[in-house]
């Protein structure tokens, strides 16, 4: 074993390699949820650096920065594990779920539905719901945790949580109006496009099932879904636009006609009175 470093040498090592802590934190932070504060990781990493400086043995031939990086990384991981209430089994399941959703998104070109995710994992929807519940309950957030990086406006979690019991009247009216526009917009879609939207997003049927039901290819179903979403987006946005220009061209006239049909499908009073919150009721 080599000679023990003096306290002065240990202090010098720590001061010289403090930037290494920030470097390691930057590397490992992407592996942790957003609620894990980077300052906490940095504090744990600094303790790891101190421990590395005390234990460093130059005679082993390992550069201090490499030795310290391992100690810093280990200290950070230990600190996160100590603060994590989720058992290892839940963390493993959470990683499997994330990977399954990522694989599905890459294959499908969109976010997978709950049913598709459950099938990919080989479990039922009820089991997937229970898994998500266990994952969410394992995440513990402090209400006084600071959000954002601005020094001018220090917001905590409790400052930004929405109080569903005291919604502003104007927000409630806007939400009712938007849901009513959505209901009318879906009803006014061409029949086959409406079947795709309802079947895909409400009934959670797959593209394969819809293609077989409609007697078309899966690529055609995907095309109709994209067309329907574009129509819904343009039609609803037109209700909040002040553009009064006359549409020219066949496509532009069709868009304008669709938007006009949405506008006249319900009166203002009917839209304001529309209180359905469940999307199934919106499309009923």
Please give a handful of descriptors for the protein shown.
RNA_pol_sigma70_r2, RNA_pol_sigma_FliA_WhiG, DNA binding, 284 residues, elongated, Butyryl-CoA Dehydrogenase, subunit A, domain 3, Arc Repressor Mutant, subunit A, Rna Polymerase Sigma Factor, Chain: A, mainly alpha, 67% helix
Overall geometry: elongated
According to CATH, what is the class of the largest domain? Mainly Alpha
**Quaternary structure annotation:** single chain
Distance between the first and last residues' Cα: 78 Å
What's the helix count? 15
**Number of E-state strands:** 2
How many domains? 3
Order of helices and strands, N to C? HHHHHHHEEHHHHHHHH
- The CATH topology of the largest domain turns out to be Butyryl-CoA Dehydrogenase, subunit A, domain 3
CATH-derived architecture of the largest domain:
Up-down Bundle
Supply Rg: 28 Å
What share of residues is helical?
55-70%
Average residue-wise pLDDT? 78
Largest sheet: 2 strands, antiparallel
SS-based structural class?
mainly alpha
Give me the side-by-side strand order of the main sheet.
Answer: 1-2
- List the uncertain runs: 277-282
Percent of residues in beta strands?
under 5%
């Amino acid at each position: 074993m080599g000679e023990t470093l003096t306290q002065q040498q240990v202090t010098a090592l720590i001061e010289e390699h403090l930037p290494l802590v920030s470097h390691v934190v930057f590397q490992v932070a992407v592996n942790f949820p957003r609620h894990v504060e980077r300052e906490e990781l940095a504090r744990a990493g600094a303790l790891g650096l101190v421990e590395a400086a005390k234990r460093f043995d130059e005679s082993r031939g390992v550069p201090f920065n490499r030795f310290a990086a391992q100690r810093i990384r280990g200290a950070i991981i230990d600190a996160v594990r100590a603060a994590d209430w989720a058992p290892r089994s839940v963390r493993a399941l959470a990683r499997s779920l994330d990977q399954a959703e990522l694989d599905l998104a890459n294959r499908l070109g969109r976010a997978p539905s709950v049913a598709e995710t459950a099938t990919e994992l080989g479990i039922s929807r009820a089991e997937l719901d229970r898994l998500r519940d266990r994952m969410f309950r394992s995440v513990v957030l402090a209400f006084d945790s600071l959000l954002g990086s601005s020094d001018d406006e220090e917001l905590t979690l409790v400052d930004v949580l929405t109080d569903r019991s005291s919604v502003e009247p104007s927000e409630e009216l806007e939400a009712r109006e938007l849901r009513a526009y959505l209901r009318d917009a879906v009803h006014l879609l061409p029949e086959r496009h409406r079947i795709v939207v309802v079947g895909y997003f409400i009934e959670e049927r797959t593209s394969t099932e819809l293609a077989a039901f409609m007697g078309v290819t899966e690529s055609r179903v995907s095309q109709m879904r994209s067309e329907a979403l574009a129509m819904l987006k343009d039609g609803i946005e037109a209700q909040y636009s002040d553009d009064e220009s006359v549409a020219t061209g066949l496509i532009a006239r069709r868009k304008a006609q669709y938007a006009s049909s949405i506008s006249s499908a319900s009166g203002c009073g009917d839209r304001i009175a529309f209180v359905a919150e469940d999307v199934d009721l919106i499309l009923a």
